[in-house]
Specification:
CATH architecture of one domain: 6 Propeller
Mean pLDDT: 86
Largest sheet: 5 strands, antiparallel
Number of strands: 31
Shape: globular
Oligomer: single chain
Helix content: under 10%
Radius of gyration: 23 Å
Structural class: mainly beta
Amino acid sequence: MKGNILFYSQMLVIIFFIQSCNEINETEKKKIFRNKYVPNKNISFHRNMNDGLKIIDSISEFRDVFTFQLNTTLNNKAEFSFIENFEPQIVNYNLESNKFKKIGQIGESNKEYLDPYQLYFNGIEYVFSDLQDRSIKKITESDADLFKRNINFTNFGITNELLIYHDEIGTDANPNDDSFFIELNLLTNKLNKINLTDAKNLDTYKYKSIALEGKVIQDEKYIANVPYKSSLISIYDIANRKMGKPIHTIDKTGIAKVELISFGNQTSFKTTPQEFINLDACLYDKKIYILSNIKQDESEYYIDVYQIEENSYHYSYKIKSISGGNPPSLIYITNGNLIVLFEDLQLQIFKMNNLK
């Protein structure tokens, strides 16, 4: 009898152990990621981890970069360009020779600039917005041109015929207006408005253009708007000249809430969440790579990868903060290499293996 009781007790322990393991596995699959500035602080979702990152180089005390160039290419490029943060200088950097080359200089002529904000480089042309004189300029090895005057935008994408930019809304605008991509034909100077938020159940959201403010990114095939504080990613197909289906980031934080705040004669916008959800992004090989600010602890960050044609989340890379907690701030991809700049200006270069 004692033997039977002992046998049954052992069986119950084994069954309980198996159930506990299953519960742990289910918990592991559905982790809680936190960002204290997100209204829903406990965001539960699963990341499919890709461990195919291998560090191949590290550069200490890199330049203080404001933004990397837009045009992420599949070509074997040993160079990329960027805008420096405090000194308004456009710089080309060669990965193989470790040499920096200044492009243009500070000033008011066509080959000069005062406050470059966004940079597009396709290997030949440096096209950028200059906030100081509200223009877009173009510099090549042998020429320079004031490309477009009196712009009312900062971020843009560019093709042979079109400028694509996300509209910017003023405080006197209708708060219930939708958000748009503006398609400016460079040959005819005609404008075409492409609605980004129509029929997407966003009627209750005000100041949608402010809610979707972020970084416009581009490669040879796509132009995308990645909001800093919202989860709706808009995709423009360059070849077909039309919008593709939007992509929602896996954190499902939704659309930022925006309200107009008045202080006497002064007005400003208040956005919730206050802090960025998406820190940076780039395009590569029909995928969007987004440096997310939604994480489990302060020492780790994730680059979430989305397939554009399948309109779906694919997998994530984990990036550890370095040098006493310095987080990653900017990312860029060229020739299968992921370039990550950290806040302490250390630049790490990873080989992306296990590309699927």
